[in-house]
Amino acid sequence: MNELTPKFNPTEVEAGRYEKWLEADVFKPSGNPDAEPYSIVIPPPNVTGKLHLGHAWDTTLQDIIIRQKRMQGFDTLWLPGMDHAGIATQAKVAARLAEDGILPQDLGREKFLDKVWEWKDEYATTIKEQWGKMGISVDYSRERFTLDEGLSQAVRKVFVQLYNKGWIYRGEKLINWDPKAMTALSDIEVIHKEIDGAFYHITYQIEGSDEFVEIATTRPETFLGDTAVIVNEKDERYKHLVGKNVILPIINRVIPILTDDHADMEKGTGVVKITPAHDPNDFEVAMRHDLPMINMMNNDGTINENGGKYEGLDRFEARKQIVADLKELGQLVDIKPVRHEVGHSERTGVVVEPRLSTQWFVKMDELAKNAIANQTTEDAVEFYPPRFNDTFMQWMENVHDWVISRQLWWGHQIPAWYNEAGEMYVGEEAPEGEGWTQDEDVLDTWFSSALWPFSTMGWPDENSADFKRYFPTSTLVTGYDIIFFWVSRMIFQSLEFTGKSPFHNVLIHGLIRDEEGRKMSKSLGNGIDPMDVIEKYGADALRWFLSNGSAPGQDVRFSYDKMDAAWNFINKIWNVSRYILMNAEDVSADAVSSALTKVANKTAGNVTDRWILTRLNDTVERVTEQMDKFEFGVAGHILYNFIWDEFANWYLELTKEVMFGEDEAEKDITRAVLLHVLDQVLRLLHPIMPFFTEEIFEKLPNTSGSIVVAEYPKVRPEFNDDKASEGVAMLIELITAVRNIRAEVNTPLSKAVPMLIKSEHADFLNAVSPYISRFTNPSELTIAKDLAVPEQAMSAVITGAELYLPLAGLINIEEEIARLEKELAKWQKELDLVNKKLGNERFVANAKAEVVQKEKDKLADYQEKFDTVKARIAELKEN
Question: What is the pLDDT of residue 846?
Fold first, then answer.
């Protein structure tokens, strides 16, 4: 007997299942040349630690997509891989070494990199184990890492080609500097946080006079690098000073007073200090006036030799001492508190220092122009939700040159070499001859990640089988927080080097927040480890939560209550499956096929069988439609309602009238329908919840092989039966109405009560009267097209029928009128809503004909119910 345990235990069900899938090679492409290819490249997690919930969300949604497409017969490839994450990984390894008192410099570059590779191997193994617990169905035979030789070759080729086109250049510019990681950062690696600061008002003396001008700055330590002050040429207050000099306090260096439109007469004192090496606006002013640029900070954020007596001090300690010294000189006028935004490193969290530095840059104007133009073509990337296309376009339209060099050891070393003669060589391989030294910097991690969709497929070999078959990829799933970091860069690099968009669709999800709506962070201590959740609830429950938590693009709040609900849902299906397996363990595939044919032809089976098969068709159609639109939450809601309400709560209960009866032939039909619906439910659920669906699927008496490669359900038109669907819907509404009335007058189901049903569908209701009797327990049951309505009776109006329960002695007429008046108000509200919709000319003109007809059908139904309730109220008031 194919038994299931009485209670769903995720640990037992999921143990060893993933390894079996890998051994069976069910995740590899089918290799069917006639099948349409469908490919995904996994957003590579970095090798800095364990998976977080955000990455679990990425992988869950992509696994849902690829599993469904695989079942639908596509030739699917899901290529896994990991990212070296230069800054983050190097920082983690350096921190581990520091625990033993070792600095990276103590080891040197090569030995330090050996330690990083050890770290990579350790954490890559951990991540793959976690992927296994998540159940993601990737093809490990194609696994890649961003520092693989093949990917390194692609990186070098791209760098050299962009350099030869003049789109990569080396120059001295103001960049964002991370003093902790001691490396340059791109603009999008800087997070602007609002913090408490101050405006320090300082006076500069005019050379050769007793006159002073006042400036205001939030960073007084930077005045050590001032090379001018500016005023607006239209500012009458300072015209007499233009062309003169001011004396910088403390260090007594003389700098000129110039005019420039950057000085705002309406802002502050109208006098602006210019520190070109430490402020982006000042840098632009310096370029216009050919001013010197004095860098006054070391790589670690301490003051350098240009800082005079403050040399060696940390920048913030220098600030304190400079303020104290200015106060002592009498040149500190005021300190005014201010709340302002300050850039912080996305990786290390420290305050970023704008700093003049020689770096490598990518010119973005042409690359951005191509990406923008592509979004108006047939090859445009489709964003889900579409509003994120605007996010992408706005960034591309305002993008700055990209600083791509990083002062690190871990990463792709820049393919540029220098010799003592001052010559530079850029190439895919080192230059011939002696005396050449390679640039010590490495490339920004996102430079190699930008090539991921095509470099992982074998490019630059455009004859690679995978590149020809699976590129462009089909769908990318990622969070909205890396549209700028990664998505945009993949798009413009792919267009430049392959002439194609890297993927057809980009599904954007939000962030996972805690139950209070806060972003998860170490500082708040509110992070959730997905592996802890899996340990308690199982991967299927977590995957169900992640796929049903929100609509595309929306944030979701993690909740243990929702995890409990997910587990309960799985346990419900588990118990339904146990019941079916216990009652249909010997039913063959042929028997199921034969029975379904008879039901479709109406030569066997009852109305409930035809109803559930009709509802199954509707569910398959709607779930498939929503999955194709990446509306996993909507698809999950449809599945939940069908499985829990229609299949488990109603059909299973209705079948007991047959299963506890004497007609063996009818039992055989019902068993076959139960097995078929369960089989289809498992297939529909499998992409979302793979583990337990496989466990049950392999125990079904008429299945073979893995559900991973089983055919995904399709609509079978021969099962559609509108009359059966409408009839059972009326039956369910009637039973529900009786239960509600009994509850209102505190009459338990165990107590038989008389029941009268007035309906134009009396013949049908009499045919299903055994069901009515089983679920409502009438002492007498009268069903007719016309009958005398009792005076003292509880009543209900349902679609197609009026229900009366003469409960003499239990009814308060006034209370019954009050109840019916509430019901009348409810139907009036429904009528108003439908009339408003149908009165909207745009809706009627633009909606599908079937949608408009559905609203008209609702209007007729609600009007009939309204009129019937109104008439009943009038009857009670007359009596």
Answer: 81
Q: How large is the average pLDDT for residues 655-681? A: 94
| Angstrom distance (rounded) from CA 64 to CA 531 | 19
Mean pLDDT for all residues in the chain: 91
Which element (helix H / strand E) includes 63? Answer: helix 53-71
Cα(681)–Cα(325) distance, integer angstroms: 77
- In our burial notation (b when 16+ CB lie closer than 10 A, e otherwise), range 264-301 reads eeeeebbbbbbbbbbbeebbebbeebebebbebbbbeb
CA–CA dist 644, 653 (Å, integer): 12
d(CA 406, CA 186): 10
Task: Give residue 312's region: left, alpha or beta (phi > 0; psi -120 to 50).
Answer: left
HSE on the CB side for 125, CA within 13 Å?
A: 5
Residue 810 binned pLDDT confidence (cut-offs 50, 70, 90): low
**Residue the block writes with tokens 């496989």:** 694
Q: What pTM was computed for the model?
A: 0.84
**Following DSSP, what letter does each residue of 62-111 receive, concatenated?**
HHHHHHHHHHTT-EEEEE-EEB--HHHHHHHHHHHHHTTT--HHHH-HHH
What's the distance, Cα to Cα, between the start and end of the chain in Å?
63
The whole-angstrom separation of Cα 682 and Cα 573 is 9
Spatial separation of the C-alpha atoms in residues 272 and 803, rounded to whole Å:
84
With H, G, I as helix, E, B as strand and everything else as coil, classify residue 780: strand
Whole-number pLDDT of residue 43: 65
Give the gyration radius of the chain's Cα atoms. 36
- 568's CB contacts (< 8 A; 6+ apart) are none
Q: Is 297 helix (H, G, I), strand (E, B) or coil?
A: strand
| Token pair of 89 as six digits | 């990984």
d(CA 376, CA 387) in angstroms, rounded, equals: 15
Distance, CA of 383 to CA of 379 (rounded, Å) = 12
Q: What is the mean pLDDT of residues 792-796?
A: 80
Q: What angle do CA 277, 342, 312 make, to 5 degrees?
A: 50
Contact 292, 259 (CB under 8 A): no
* Residues 159-204: tens digit of each pLDDT: 999 999 999 999 999 999 999 988 988 887 888 889 999 999 999 9
| SS3 category, 183 | strand
Rounded-to-integer distance, Cα 305 and Cα 296, Å: 7
Q: What is the pLDDT of residues 329-340, one digit of tens each?
A: 999 999 999 998
CA distance 831 to 815: 24
The per-residue DSSP string of 811-854 comes to --HHHHHHHHHHHHHHHHHHHHHHHHHHT-HHHHHHS-HHHHHH
Residue 407 in this model has a pLDDT that exceeds 60: yes
The torsion angles phi and psi of 294, rounded to 5 degrees, stand at -110, 110
Contact yes or no for 616/673 (Cβ under 8 A): no
**Mean pLDDT, rounded, for 528-535:** 92
- Element holding 335 (H helix, E strand): strand 332-345
Alpha carbons 269 and 9: distance in angstroms, whole number: 71
For tokens 């309204």, the residue is: 866
Cα→Cα distances 306→140, 226, 227, 233, 303, Å = 55, 11, 12, 31, 8
